[in-house]
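User: I'm new to structure prediction. If I give you an amino acid sequence, what do you actually give back? Let's try with this one:
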Amino acid sequence: MLHLTIQGSVMTSNVIPPTVRLNGYPVPVKYGRNDIPVYAGPLHIDIHSQWMRTFGKAALDCTVQPNQAVPVFYASPYHQFASAGSIGHSKVKRNGLGFLLAFAGGIVALALLVFLLAALG
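Assistant: Good question. You get back a string of structure tokens that encode the predicted 3D arrangement of the chain. For your 121 residues, that looks like this:
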């Protein structure tokens, strides 16, 4: 059994849940924990998010033993311009927070500059 947890929600990540492929085969998932039955043996997990483009790609290889439950956690990045998603066997952190904060700070600085120039002119 694969216990795949897609971290986040429709409100905090993306309206569209990530795309998951197990050994190349698509598997429907939702945010939160997904209990997916799998065969014992090697398992290749590919996950990515989709909005205007594909982003948040992450992959993990593991071996599932008979009657074993393997926990896997995935978190998409904060924005679609980050290079990768995060995946692991324990809870993971989302990538891209620094870029998101810098971008928001740049917009605020630009708005203040326009306001300041309008006030002076």
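You can read the tokens as a compact description of the fold. Here is one thing that stands out. The helical segments are 97-120.
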